[in-house]
Input
Amino acid sequence: MQGTSDGFIVRWLVVSSFGINRTEPEGYMIRPRSIQALIGVAAGAALISVAGPALADPTAECSARNSNQIEIGTCMAEAMKAADEAMSMALEFATNAASDLDKSTGREYAVPALKAGQEAWSQYRDKHCEFVGTTFGGGSGTGIAIQNCRTESARDRYAELMQFVQ
Output
């Protein structure tokens, strides 16, 4: 997928997926969970491929299409935003699945455990990516390295969360 129109379509899919997943005022889901999971997987796959063919990492994806550090940085920011949106959508799906589990077991353990795990993951990502940035010694690639780390982490977390969506 290359070009702005394809990128627009992918971003629209993610944004519309957020809206579709909401409940009606009466509390009925707009679509069944299996369709919800299918759209989540499709949207995540589309987001991950938004940069064109996947290369070694987000920096390589952006470097393949851009010629200078400013353009690469802008591309990296867009890739990070897309990965964060996909990960947030997967978290919402996983939270819904955890809530269903809690309801069926009559125990409220899954949702609090997922929330605690997500908070711990978020803190880990922030600290780990900060460390990755320090390995560049304050050089001009520091920001791109941090964005790369955050993007890869969000992509990985998306995959982890989607394992729990039924």
Residues 69-105 form the longest helix (37 residues). DSSP finds six helices and no strands in the chain.
